[in-house]
Amino acid sequence: MTPKQRILAAICLYLLSICVLTFEVSLSRVLAATTGYHMAFLAVSLTIFGLGGGGFGLYWIRRRGGTWAKSSGPALLAALLLPLSLLGFVLASVFTSVSQHWVPFMLVTLLPFFFAGVVISHLFRQYAQHASFLYAFDLLGAAMGCLVVVLLLHGLGGGIRAILAAALLACGPMLAFAVLTEARLSYLLAGAGTAVLSLALLCVSLFSGGLDLDPMRFSGMSEYIALQKAGGKNPHWQPELSSWDEFSRVDVVEYLGGPAVSKHIFINGRTPANMVGFSGKPEEMSYLRYMPGYVAFVSGKTDSACCIGAGGGVDVFVSLLGGAKHIDAVEINPGVVAATLKDGVFNGNVFAFDSVNLYVEDGRSFLARHPDKRYDVVYLALVQSITGDFNDLAFVEDYLYTVEAAGSYYEHLAEGGRVVMETHHERLLYRYAATLASMLADKGVGKDEILNHIGVFSFPKGEQHTSYVTLLFQTPPNAAQVSAVDEYVRIIGGQVLNLAGIVEDPILSHFVHGNGMLVIDDVDISPCKDDRPFFFRHSPQFVTMMLQIWAGVLLANLLLIALLWRGRRRLPTDGQTRGLGMLIAYFMLIGVNYTLVQIVVMQKSILFLGYPTLSLSVVLFTMLLGSGIGSYVSNRFASTLMGRARAVLLAVTVLGLAYAYGMAPLYRMLIGETIGIKMLTVVVLLLPISFLLGMPMPLGLRAAEKRFGEGIPYFWGLNGTASVLGSVTATVIALSRGFTAAWLVAVLITMILVLLLQRRAVDVDAE
Amino acid sequence: MKSTLDHLLLAVAGFLLVLAWVAVILITGRMYWGFDDSLSVATPDFSEVERIPGARP
User: Which residue of A150, A320, A484 is in closest CB contact with B56?
Assistant: First the structure.
């Protein structure tokens, strides 16, 4: 391999990775808006299979023999088809309905990944001896792709335009690959033509507003608009403003059917945050006194309030009506805040009131950064905006409802203060009341006293809709306070389920005097902790669905292994299959392990950093950069490569164990620091383990090249599909046992790898 | 020669990566901290609004 070929191959891989990541992230944005987060998660997982499928495809084609199949022919064709398939995806998503044509749409989605997989695995097959060098650029390209997509979404606005840009980007590696393989001129012309076409379509989208998604297709929100257009039962919705930011789609819809005009801010078409109209006359807001959360303001001092999930400012108005003089409004979603600030004329500039301080960050992080603040009321009303619905990927707001979170609110209460939480689900009401009870028990409150600190109420609204409120009293309420609360609840038509001296809820009483478990109708709704913060995911169907997905992904991986095993005799150059089984297990386990580590670290860092999007950027950047450097450095190892991999994995095991027990205390200690220090902490913490985790893959590819060169596209593909298994495994374990358990499984996998290599490394390393 | 070229290419890729990262952090940071909070409006006096009977602070 000449230096020119090395450089061209590295550039090709670098650009391909940027392109793949740009498509993957843009795709998740588009699908989150059109089908919901959970389907986006599933779709993106499936598409990674497409990438691995490219590796399997190339392995299969090469096995069929023929000059064309053995040369770079299949990869050249795939490189040309990659940008064309991306353009095909854009046209399919703009002109057809994703939800109505789910299966064909998924096939169209798989194609770009498949073609990219063919090219990437071809490069690793062809230049396997330089795998350490090339894999470094593959990873650095992936890191760059995560960043480029944000810049594209920022600059171009809209997921579809970012995908058009990805098609244009894909022409770069295609041309580099053509030069590398000395392809004919006609191929280069075809590549140039595709680039011009991609650029033209991008310009059309940018300058005419065409080639974009129809808001009617957005899940959730589209239901309301469709009803309105059809003259259905909900004719009061009027879409007003739509925009894409770097991370989501924001739509503001006016609602004319309530007691006053209000607007709903939809993020990715789901779970709206409310914004109410205010023309400057306080009495026009008097209807908000009937909001159930107002119950926190009817007894005791009300001078200061902290609204967590302040959304469109409704909670701020409720607090002002309740008598608050100083309000800290904390909202994690910048899209909601931007929409509320932009519509200041409508909402009376609620966030600009001189008694209101606005903080755009996670509520937990905000309180941790301000340990000395004390409030008469901490107000959490239906905080669920960024998660979209119960089944998505971002578990951020779940962290607001853990035992540790309740402890933080309790510690931030002034003498006699209250924490109020509102929900629409009875099970969540009990789960939160039980969470408060657990927290009080942890604080040393006696069992007989615990329920005196907790008020629980239901407020029916119409036949099918009920609001539920939980109230935590810093000190048990006196008779006057109890009487005021009781009277308020009765006046607005509610029911007291638990209140000191009035009534004790039997379910809660059973919980407090029981074993710490709360089960209603066979559903476990025991309190959540930070390690397993799935407050909203109480449904057994969700766990069953994840287990089914996990089993399906595992089966797919095993099937692919079985296919290779059938033709194992033809694979090795010396006809000896010794070491093949070990290599299959090796590539599969390191794929599972890497994703497990990545997902757990990302989740733990979300709470620590306080900004989910920032957490994603910092963790992905650090892990891919560290792994890229690790891969590059692994080039120094020239012999006994699997033996070296064993030493590296042993070091990963030791570090992994240290992180399992050291990371959480470190994060707890530093959570109150500035964001700069916290980002630096994550980078410094993750670099060493990422550096080591970047080595096993290229070392394995180089070691395999000696006797199993033809299997390299297959091994590369298996590693990709195993990473999907890793992400689903992380979710399943975290749901049932928590994130620490998922981390320990990752450590266990590295231990198994070390033992495997201890016994079998010599089978591959032996000359 | 080969090694020098490799190092150079890695350095360029790394530099571009760090540059892009800084740009993304600035964009993300602006989303969270870049809101124009110069506008200040006097808070209306909500104490004038009658409280629901019985709901006394």
Answer: A484
When pLDDT is cut at 50, 70 and 90, the band that residue A239 belongs to is low
Q: Which residues of A touch B40 (CB under 8 A)?
A: 352, 354
Collapsing DSSP to helix, strand or coil, A444 comes out as coil
- Percent pLDDT > 90 in chain A is 53
Q: How far apart are CA A428 and CA A365, in angstroms?
A: 23
pLDDT tens-digit readout, A62-92: 888 778 888 889 999 999 999 999 999 888 8
CB contact under 8 A, A286 and B50: yes
Mean pLDDT score of chain A: 86
Question: Packing angle between helix A712-737 and helix A696-708, nearest 10 degrees?
Answer: 140
Strand-pair partners of A330: A308, A359
* CA closest to B25 among chain A residues: A614
What gap in Å lies between CA A266 and CA A273, rounded to an integer?
A: 7
Q: Give the pLDDT confidence of A372-416 residue by residue, as tens digits.
A: 999 999 999 876 533 434 334 344 557 889 999 999 999 999 999
Beta carbons of B6 and A133 less than 8 Å apart? yes
Residue A232's identity, in one-letter code, is G
**Euclidean distance between CA atoms A593 and A112, whole angstroms:** 26
Phi-psi region of A349 (alpha: psi -120 to 50; beta: other; left: phi over 0): left
Integer angstrom CA distances of residue A670 from A344, A373, A678: 36, 18, 7
B45/B17 Cα distance (integer angstroms): 52
Distance CA A449, CA A454 (A): 10
Q: Is the model's pLDDT at A50 over the cut of 70?
A: yes
Residue A232: per-residue pLDDT? 46
User: Alpha-carbon distance A690 to A626, whole Å?
Assistant: 5
Q: CA A493 to CA A505: how far, in whole Å?
A: 19
3-class DSSP assignment, residue A499: strand
Is A713 part of the contact surface with chain B (CB cutoff 8 Å)? no
Nearest to A352 by CA among B55, B44, B32: B44
Confidence (pLDDT) at A666? 94
* CA–CA dist A61, A54 (Å, integer): 10
Token reading at A367: 């309180």
**pLDDT per residue as tens, chain B (57 positions):** 567 888 899 899 989 998 998 898 888 788 777 787 788 899 999 888 877 655 444
Chain B positions contacting chain A at CB under 8 Å are 1-2, 5-6, 9-10, 13-14, 16-17, 20-21, 23-25, 27-29, 31-33, 35-37, 39-57
Closest CA to A420 of A369, A460, A474, A374: A474
Q: What is the model's pTM?
A: 0.86
Record: contact A625-B14, CB cut-off 8 A: yes
DSSP-based three-state secondary structure for B55: coil
The two tokens of residue A657 are 């164990």
Say if CB A397 and CB A332 are below 8 A apart: yes
Secondary structure letter of residue A454 according to DSSP: E
Residues of A in contact with B47 (CB under 8 A): 323
Interchain CB contact of A359 with B (< 8 Å):
no
CA atoms within 13 A on the CB side of A13: 28
Is A320 within 8 Å of chain B by CB?
yes
Query: Cα(A438)–Cα(A742) distance, rounded to whole angstroms?
Result: 24
Question: A136 to chain B: which residues are within 8 Å by CB?
Answer: 10
Adjacent-strand bridge partners of A28? none
Please report residues of A whose CB lies closer than 8 A to that of B32.
334, 360-361, 611, 614
Cβ–Cβ contact A354 with B under 8 A: yes
Task: Return the number of other C-beta atoms located less than 10 Å from residue A571's C-beta.
Answer: 19
Residue A644: name the closest of A630, A623, A656 by CA. A630
CB–CB contact A617 B36 (8 Å): no
Q: Which residue has the higher pLDDT, A474 or A621?
A: A474
